[in-house]
Amino acid sequence: MMSLTSSRYGMRCASNGAEALACVKEHVPDLVITDWMMPLMGGAELCRRMRAQPDLARVPILVHASAPLPVNEGNAWNACLQKPVPMQLFLTTVGRLCTGHG
User: Fold this and answer.
1) Residue 17 falls inside a structural domain
2) What tens digit of pLDDT does each residue of 23-32 get?
3) Which residues constitute the domain of residue 48?
4) What pLDDT does 20 receive?
5) What is the pTM of this model?
6) Residue 21 resides in a domain
7) If you write DSSP's letter for every residue of 4-63 in order, what string do you get?
8) In a domain, 100, yes or no
């Protein structure tokens, strides 16, 4: 995450999916980056719950995970990067999603 702060992105961190959902409800972000496997609520459920809420449904979601991912049914997320990913690709993807071209 140091790469994001050094690239001048502001960010908030959550330790699990439930905390992340509470965070995004409190302050709607420009982008959510989530792992797939997390305690309390995984990335799939976080994506589904965000898409089900009108005020969060349009927030771009980047899944950044090492676990094999299922097919993106219903466009639950905007982009997926499999770990490890080259930092330049990660930052380019973040930039593209933050500017609405995801």
Assistant:
1) yes
2) 999 999 999 9
3) 2-93
4) 96
5) 0.89
6) yes
7) HHHTT------SSHHHHHHHHHHS--S-EEE-SS-SSS-HHHHHHHHHHSTTTTTS-EEE
8) no
